[in-house]
Amino acid sequence: MQFIDRSIELMEKKRATALLATDKAKFIALSEIIIEKIKTGELKPGDQIPSENELIKTFKISNTTARKTLLAIESKGWARRIKGKGTYVLNRTEDHHLLRTLGSIYATRRGFHDSLIAEGFTPKNIVLEKTVLQDGISSEINGRHFIIDGPVLKLHQLRYADELLIKDEVKYISLTLCPKINKIPTEVSYFKVYENNYHLKINEVQQTLGVKILEPNTTNFELSKPTPVFVLDSAVICTGDKVVEIEQSYYHGDKYKFAVIASPEYDYRPANPVTS
Prior knowledge:
The chain is an alpha+beta fold. The chain has nine helices and 13 strands. It has a six-stranded antiparallel beta sheet with strand order 5-8-9-12-11-10. Strand 6 and strand 7 form a beta hairpin. The protein is globular. Mean pLDDT is 82; it is low at 1-11.
């Protein structure tokens, strides 16, 4: 995992070693180090905290100390353990803004639904349209023209967090590259499906972000006044410059902040396929 690969760097081993040598119980000292990383923003909402095994390996502590460390962080309300997946930083921002990182393969791979769960929200999806377009679709992003030849699956759904509509999402997916993907549940990470079910090697993700003012009663967002929304256009490109997905979506401007990663590195991580 991307976060795990950075864990030693994030925790500044020298400082951690010094704190662990104090009179404090080791699990308290280590939990305070990790919580400080959360407070300073080095660990962001939805980021995964090192597992027990990773803490044991990095800091040469017992499994009891590692387990108590994670329990201490969770009991103080900074993280949440998801059974079978790990411990994730909760969203404790004052206004519960959702931070999304453009250009992050890690964030894209995890998917919208799982990201909300990791941050402590309850996600809900409402599918408005799920149809097959025979003529294909095209989009211009970052000065490049991206085309998916038909047939294409058009998936239009509303994404909610704790009953608040935060994203109006439209995806177009190649049925040539991903036959029968319309049988896959819509809340999954399609990026993982491309990799694991269809064994596609994703070479790049092109994204642009704009801003638009929406008037009340003109969109699916329930707006009482003119409200800014982020407009995301993206394309997922696999080997041979084949476009597997084009997305055109609105994000609720009052609930989102975006960050950018420059020159992201991609690593292919096959896992178990998703089934319907």
